[in-house]
Queue: 2 jobs
Job 1
Amino acid sequence: MKKLTKDIIPAVEKEYLSKYSLFGNKYIEVCKYFQRQGADLIQVIFDHPKIKLVKTLMDKLDSTGLIIGGNISHKKEIKGILTAGAEFVVIGRYFVLHPERIKGYLEYFGKHLIFSVDDSRGYITANKNIKTLDYVNILVQNKAKNMVYVSDATKLKGEINLRLFKQIRKITKNSSLIYSGGVQTINDIINLKNAGADSIIAGTALYENSLNYKEAVKVFRS
């Protein structure tokens, strides 16, 4: 299994494919581009689970691993995606609504699960009554091994919330913690590295060519 450490993970999703053409406009074209750039892991987000496409991508990508997300919840879907060759599956909203099922899913899928912590100004996006730190504590209590903090910085066109991210890092010492959302510059990479991010997911900035993938990887790993 690939490790979620010291990596810049490019994001590939339908929104980028329809809006940008810098790297192509098909999942396989863009994934192959980032593979040639040296990506060890690529995050692919679908509108709904597409197990056949996951298998097609894995057949073409050789040693590059995939993180798959997008309205996934059922064990059958997760099993199908992992059987097709993906390394990890990202799940967010489902476990916010059903926290009692976290333990059972972890026992079944273990380190292949990445729990998405979707933040909106300190509260969980799927349920604004839950503070982001409280939800992270629930994941920690259930011994979740992998988490991705998803900031609303891109939507709000604001700065990365380093203060909250550092607080999350402090209580997730035994978990891999990925940052996603609003990464625009090399300075953002440096700040997140110093804040303790194990990996960083980059999307818009790569497609708008304001962030160079290889340079970002070099800085993050230095």
Note: The chain is about 45% helix and 25% strand.
Job 2
Amino acid sequence: MKAPGTREPWVDAAMSFYSKHMWKECYHAATMALEIKDKQLVYTCDPLVWGSWAHDLASISAWHLGHKDEAMRHCRDAIEADPNDDRLKANLKWMEDALNSPAEEQAGSQPDVDQGSDTVDGEGERSSEGSDGSKTD
């Protein structure tokens, strides 16, 4: 991995694992990104990796791995980083509701990762969408 001391390659790896439903690897890469606290001010620095993205991926993968409390903690951290992201808020509510509902209602359910204003598109790229669903970037 090039530049393992920066968040960008770890978040890229987490996104790749996410798209392949490789939850353990996704969680590892996302949490490795989050361990990096020194934001290097270089031209390759991507502001997205310093926002909610790594916490979002850690939350989703933790949920799939059965680490419900960890998933909710990362989701709360993602919301703290991006308080205007309605999808993150909806994911947290969904997780809370899932934990408070009977087990048979939870079977097969997972947090939503593909709706809201800031989404992960089918090609593993973060994008913004307008209210009509059209991409704005």
Note: Residues 4 and 43 are 16 Å apart (CA to CA).
